Amino acid sequence: MKIFYDFDHVGTIRNAVVTTGSFDGVHIGHKVILQRLKKLAAEIGGETVLITFHPHPRKVLYPETAGKGLYLINSQREKINLLQKAGLDNLIIVTFTLAFSQITSIDFVRNILLNKLHARKIVIGFNHHFGHNREGDYQALRDLGIANDFEVEEIPEQDIHNESVSSTKIRKAILDGNIQKANAYLDHQYIVMGAANKSSPILEEIGFPCYSVRVEEDCKLVPPNGVYAVTVIGEDSFSRAMCFIRKNEISPLETLVEVHLLESYGTIEGEIVTLLFHKRIREERILTTTEDLKKQLTIDRNQVDELIF
Fold first, then answer.
1. Could you report the per-residue pLDDT of 101-138, keeping only the tens digit for each?
2. What is the residue-wise DSSP string for 202-227?
3. What is the CATH number of the domain that holds 141?
4. Tell me, what CATH number does 298's domain have?
5. Number of structural domains in the chain
6. Same-domain status, 157 and 281
7. Phi, psi at residue 221, to the nearest 5°?
8. What single-letter DSSP state applies at residue 158?
9. Which structural domain range is residue 233 located in?
10. pLDDT of 209-242, one tens digit each?
11. Measured distance between the N- and C-terminal CA atoms of the chain, rounded to whole angstroms
12. Cβ-Cβ contacts under 8 Å for 256 (sequence gap 6 or more)
């Protein structure tokens, strides 16, 4: 997958089949769009293109309201990783600014999609809007397509278990600690990627050596405090693990994500690792003695060890 951070350095894309959007979570609905992009591109010997935005438009347009408390399912690193696995050919990450938000839908289509990308086909999701004041929609694109000789396709709304799939519902499931429901919506495990470092000497002393995994972006959505069953993927290792999420006692605004590996493959210290979340084992509990802590963690580890993942 080729990654670009502006339109001026994109170069030639063969028969571009384009979609736009935040694609936070790269969930099952997004994958339907990507699969359709790939099919259309294959039919015309073309390449797939996603135009996405960083930071999230709501963070820029509504910093004190809708964007203020917005947490995202994926960091930029995570989204790139997931889109690459989905088989996307070209990713264009646009720096979203107030100036960019002023571009009209017609100018966006003509100056960017046509003049710079030479789009042959444009695919949009259900009820997708774009351009200044969200004025552009499927009908506007169709009209422009007829006038400018490109095709437009709208993907119908996708359902799972009779519920509409949306990033908002996935965020709620994660915040509720319902990892299994979030994973069903995502069609993959919820992930956290970050640098691993040695952590918690107290836990190591009682037989539970841990690594801390640094959450890379402040707006990254992290599940509520508690214990989780996860898989840890390092550069050359793969291990089931028990994950602890808790507030940092030294820096209360910071969330600590720590993992205790059930299998040992050397060290992952200093590596960028991926945590795949499978299930929440329990909520956080206040344990006052070292003996109580050791006893509870032993129970937790046995629970995680009994799971098939």
1. 999 888 988 899 999 999 999 998 776 777 766 777 78
2. HHHHTT--EEEE----TTB--PPSEE
3. 3.40.50.620
4. 2.40.30.30
5. 2
6. no
7. -75, 125
8. P
9. 189-306
10. 999 999 999 999 999 999 999 999 999 999 999 9
11. 29
12. 199, 212, 244, 245, 246, 247, 248
